Amino acid sequence: MAEGDDDASKTEEPTDKKLQKAKEEGQVSQSQEIKSWASFFSAAVFVVFLGPIFAESLLAPITFFISEGYQISVDPHNLEVLFSRLLADMGLRVLPLLFVFMVTAVFAGVIQTGLIWAPKKIQPKLENISFKKGIKKVISTKSVMELVKTVFKMTLVGAVAFGVIIPVFYDMEVLPAYDVFHIMELMYDIAVIMLVGVTALMTLIAALDYSYQKYSFTKQMRMTKQEVKDEHKQAEGDPLVKAKIRQLRMERARQRMMAAVPSADVIVTNPTHYACALSYKQDMMSAPKLVAKGMDNLALRIRELADENDVPIFENPPLARALYASVEIDQEIPSEHYAAVAEVIGYVMRLKGHLN
Predict the structure, then answer these.
(1) Closest alpha carbon to 37 in 157, 146, 142
(2) CB-based contact 301:294 (threshold 8 Å)
(3) Which of 89, 236, 248, 252 has the most Cβ atoms closer than 10 angstroms to its Cβ?
(4) Contact 306/265 with Cβ under 8 angstroms?
(5) What is the pTM of this model?
(6) DSSP 8-state code for residue 353
């Protein structure tokens, strides 16, 4: 079957079981744009609220080179040591910021999919080492869409950034008249405006991409009607197997029931359609108990067992039908049948010589 035909046959929404299995294998709906947006948003918040303070902390190690540069020895070894210390100092100041950006990106991924442990995803597979498969991945519809999306996103971001920067060009002629700190304030204002504009744009892009990734993943996970039926069979059990198990249980229950007939005290019959075996141990039971019942062929087998084991048979059609319909196996006789059953038990006791 062609891939297009196979996709067309997948008309059913994915079940929770399939989605859970896909998650265990590392297949989830995830937007990389959400991660990019989260990192960029955290950077924008940082620049807007902590940018000046951070800039001052970065300028502190450089101040010495600006204000006391004439005192610095130009010895190569000395310059190497100074610059190494400068880079290390600035690196230590920037490192926490980079760590925050990384944590933000990871957190954005966890928010989308939750924590995932999928060892199968990172296991190397020899079948994946294929030039043909590599070419298919490069020219696949998904890769082309990602390329188009990236180009479109970069074009929009560039347009926003250019739109923010272009007004500055009108002031280029007067910039030399400004002092360094005024120029830095101007650059900071431009950076803030640029970050706010680009963040707003990336928010829209991330929302659209998240919706698209969700739709694309759901479409990929769709199932055919047969797959849904097969999964239902696996979850509920094959009907044929369940029927066989139910049949075996009924047969075993019937065997246990028939084994109780020889020890019954009396069989109440219809006389041919119904047969109910009663047991009553006066010292052990508060009321007689139904130990076996049957209809038609099973009723005949109960009567035959009763004859073989000298169990009395008492014909009482109304009582036999009532007991068959309202009393389950190993259940005591309900109070509404006490009078009729007492008459039967009395008859049995008289037969056995317990009365008169």
Answers:
(1) 157
(2) yes
(3) 89
(4) no
(5) 0.48
(6) T
Helix/strand/coil (H, E, C) string of 277-293?
EEECCCCCCCCCEEEEE
pLDDT band at 177 (very low <50, low <70, confident <90, very high): low
In a domain, 122, yes or no: no
Does residue 185 lie within any of the structural domains? yes
Q: Are residues 112 and 211 in contact, defined by beta-carbon separation less than 8 angstroms?
A: no
Domain of 203 in residue numbering reads as 30-67+80-116+130-222
Q: What is the pLDDT of residues 249-296, one digit of tens each?
A: 888 888 888 888 888 888 999 888 899 999 888 778 788 888 999 888
Residue 209 belongs to some domain of the structure: yes
Residue 108 CA, distance from chain mean position: 18
- For residues 287 and 177, state if they share a domain: no
Indicate if 93 and 214 belong to the same structural domain: yes
Residue with tokens 């002031």: 171
218 and 288 share a domain?
no
Domain limit, last residue, from 191, 222, 253: 222
How far apart are alpha carbons 316 and 342 in whole angstroms? 13
DSSP string, 156-191: HHHHHHHHHHHHHHTTGGGGGGS-HHHHHHHHHHHH
Residue tagged 């070894």 (tokens):
77
